[in-house]
Amino acid sequence: MSSNNDDSGIGHEFSSGETKKIPVIEEKLVISSKVVETGSVSVSKKVLEEEVFADATVTSEEVTIERKEINQYVDAAPAPVRQEGDITIISVVKEVLVVEKRLMLVEEIHIKKHQHQDQKTYSQVLRKEEVTISRDTSGMDI
């Protein structure tokens, strides 16, 4: 405030009984914020495909059936199923009319398993996602 201003009362003498108002001024700081765009972010995703090859051992079993004719008369029926090593034998009998009834072993069925192992290659498409993030920094001047 200037001393030349009469309203302030500064440098002015008061007579008795005279009242003078002197304004007192105070400044205050007001802080505020505003939203400013400083850039942008973009997110993109793409699916990548890759063909892969994998080797695997595959086990398979094969059954061979061989019919062997026996055509012999037997006094008693043999065991219906028996095992000789890795061969399963199933006896087939029939009754034949003769002057007397007898069992005749007609045939045996021999079943043998064979195991094969082959190396095979399988093809399969695998997918994988890849994410890319980029930021546009235009407008960073604050």
UniProtKB/TrEMBL annotation:
Domain DUF2382, chain residue ranges per copy = 22-133
The name this protein goes by in its record: YsnF/AvaK domain-containing protein
Species of origin reads Dyadobacter chenhuakuii
